[in-house]
Amino acid sequence: MRLYISADIEGVSGVVHSEHTARDGREHDRARMYMTSEVNACIEGALEAGVKNIIVNDSHGTMRNIILEELHPVAELISGSPKKLAMVEGLDETYDAAIFIGYHTRMGIPGILNHTFHGRAIKTIKINGKEFGEFELNAAVAGHFGVPVVMVSGCNLLAKEARELIPGIETAVVKQTINRTTAINVGIQTAREIIRQQTIRALQNREQIQPFIIDGKLNVEVSFLNTGLADYAEILPAVKRCSPDSVTFQTDQIIHAYRYIRSLILMVSSSI
Prior knowledge:
Layout: E1 2-7, H1 18-21, H2 28-48, E2 53-58, E3 76-78, E4 97-103, E5 122-127, E6 130-131, H3 134-144, E7 149-155, H4 156-165, E8 170-179, E9 182-185, H5 188-204, E10 218-224, H6 227-233, E11 240-243, E12 246-251, H7 254-269
Parallel strand pairs: 1-2, 1-4, 2-3, 4-7, 7-8
Antiparallel strand pairs: 5-6, 5-10, 8-9, 10-12, 11-12
Helix pairs in contact: 2-5, 6-7
């Protein structure tokens, strides 16, 4: 069995502030240790469930967060950026399951450090009229390859968001949201045990969880936090301005949609 792990940081127990998540944040190195520990707990659970091959994709910010010398030796690590598929780089049809560690809710709904890809640029991303956050978009890419996302860890509200999208998905709740930058966090060892146990459970039940697949033509609308960002996005020939702060484009593959979205974010971030 092959397992793909995508690891973000905002949903990790103890992470509640930009000082944890920003590269130059005073608490960033501590948060990296928490993140690596939770990834290791997932790996340990996967090994107990019979997984033979594990790859971890560092999916936060610069994508250079996981501490390699502390990572479980059985796993391989994808680190660095840019990546064509960003948070799901390296994922393909050869994997039996995917697990997302340390994820968060999408921009505009409650949850610890909620945002969608870029908290200072993106307001909403809609596909065929439905709002998608990082969890949904990454799950859709996994579904394109026929890979089910069988478990996700993060706060209680992220768990709710995940269950609404994927019936039967296992969730590892390691903190309870109070507000965007305040949470009740479980202890480090407790978080590890929750993730380990839920990983085992998810992989044992993986055949009951279906990949999340988006079929047909995709109408994608990306809304930005201000009109100036949309000015930059409109430069890309594939998109059309559809409102003062939004652009839209059409495609027939989620992979193409994902790469267009990532390209738009890279374009507008140069102006921030």
